Amino acid sequence: MSKDHRRRYSSQVVDGLSKAPGRAMLRAVGFDDEDFKKPQVGIASTWSTLTPCNMHIDGLAVDAGRGADEAGGKSMIFNTITISDGIANGTEGMKYSLVSREVIADSIETVAGCEGFDGLVAIGGCDKNMPGCIMGLARLNRPSVFVYGGTIRPGANHTDIISVFEAVGAHAKGDMSLIEVKQVEETAIPGPGSCGGMYTANTMASAIEAMGMSLPGSSAQDAISDSKLVDCRAAGAAVLELLEKDIKPSDIMTREAFENAITVVIALGGSTNAVLHLLAMAYTIDVELTLDDFVRIGKRVPVVADLRPSGQYMMSELVAIGGIQPLMKMLLEAGLLHGDCMTVTGKTLAENLASVQPYPDGQDIIRALNQPIKKDSHLRILYGNLAPTGAVAKITGKEGTHFTGRARVFHSEEETLDNILDGTVQAGDVLVIRYEGPKGGPGMREMLSPTSAIIGKGLGSSVALITDGRFSGGSHGFVVGHVTPEAAEGGPIALVEDGDTIIIDAEANQITLDISDEEMQQRKSRWQPPEPRYTRGVLAKFARTVCSASEGAVTDKG
């Protein structure tokens, strides 16, 4: 049998007389004598009928396998999990969302590490799938390609999932009838694909392409399209090329590659979740990355994409004008990207972009760099006596850059939502949602239901919201998440009282609780840690092992 370098792992599983039992098992799933001589390519599929984001990925996995087989490999498809943020948001079930990122990474590492795959393709379609897949590939560090499942098409009247969340708030305000809400509900999600704005799924897909871990164009394709099928088949073949050249994730996911990803996320006006996930991905591949890197890069990179949730266009409309490749070429030519970074094509980023054509004349989705929507980053890393180790805000400027208001404190997302919908929350309030952090939730839920209700009730410019939880990529308004240290660890957010004045300055990047140091210490001395909300199972394990959101909320940091 062949001992070439492309079979570094599979040869240990199938070569030699002592491996006859393993070969016997593999014959039952379709191997023949020739297949044992080929490099094995694992296809990690996140297929599920739980959510439209992933309902089509079984077919994409088959195409990726075909691409690997046609290129001389032997593909094997296996599944990992997915959950649906869109379904779980606002419920106790959402506490499992961030946890699923770790489970996905664990499961990909577990299967590939056990079975001896020489290379991998991972296909993700929903928010946590993507960083989870990349973290699994990074841990294994075998030649790998990521494939994005693709974006959904717009619903009727240019609607999407966020339209449904905001319709709930509009009904509470009296601006929509029940039948109008139902009409939006019935038509906003027309079929397969990830949520249609520059929410977390499309943000992370774009970041991964910018990083070089997916093929050019993979992040900007409709879920149901010929181009996505071609992307999958090409990804399978690309793994064989990477095996031949011995190019691994650690050769691609360098510090400069992460800086490229941050740059593209900022230019696109992407999700705050990108901060959390990029920190986690960097830790996993042993690249030093901190919140301060987002600050440094954010000073020189403008927001140029007019995409939802803060803008008006959807990802499918960006797909139609060429996706993110022309944007990346603009950024490269402006000196804002590292062009010498290696990618899964086996070429550098600059080589991949050399023949990319500019956006068509007349389009207004992506602006020129000298005519930006915002001259610097919308991702604001805030520090102050309320967030000594950092917090993350998404401030595009449309909601203003300063907010001073009175604290209205809640200990759960559900309690907050009830008070928004019943009219308790008023203009001038700073809603404080605490004990929703990685440890305290546990699970660091997204506050999409409250933020959408705020927008739907017309309070988007007059109410701010801060939390040790996080936000959906679909959230917009004056919102600050990832407040650290979190309340469950006795962070200052645990000490806020109703009526306190909170000052948020997104230009000076400060978040301040307007009380004296002496008062802060007195409150701290009275604070008692809460009892764990879960003592058994995956949420309990997550709470015991997870690190701070300012470090990516990973569970294997020790």
**Major beta sheet, specifics?**
8 strands, mixed
- N-to-C terminal Cα separation, in Å? 41 Å
Using DSSP, what is the number of strands? 12
- The multimeric state of the shown protein is single chain
Structural class: alpha/beta
Helix proportion: 25-40%
Shape: globular
Low-confidence stretches: none
Radius of gyration: 23 Å
In terms of DSSP E residues, the strand content is 5-15%
Q: What is the number of helices?
A: 21
Mean pLDDT across all amino acids: 96
List the strand order in the largest sheet: 5-6-10-9-8-7-11-12
List key phrases describing it.
eight-stranded mixed beta sheet; 558 residues; alpha/beta; globular; four-stranded parallel beta sheet; 12 strands
Describe the structure.
The chain is globular. It is built from 21 helices and twelve strands. With 558 residues, the chain is an alpha/beta fold. Strand 5 and strand 6 (387-394) form a beta hairpin. The two termini are 41 Å apart. The protein has an eight-stranded mixed beta sheet with strand order 5-6-10-9-8-7-11-12.
Helices, strands, pairings?
Blueprint: H1 11-14, H2 20-28, E1 40-45, H3 57-70, E2 74-79, H4 85-88, H5 97-115, E3 119-124, H6 129-140, E4 144-148, H7 161-173, H8 178-187, H9 200-211, H10 226-245, H11 249-252, H12 255-268, H13 273-284, H14 291-298, H15 315-320, H16 325-333, H17 349-353, E5 379-384, E6 387-394, E7 402-410, H18 413-421, E8 429-433, H19 448-456, E9 464-467, E10 478-481, E11 501-505, E12 510-513, H20 517-526, H21 537-545
How would you summarize what this structure contains?
With 558 residues, the chain is an alpha/beta fold.
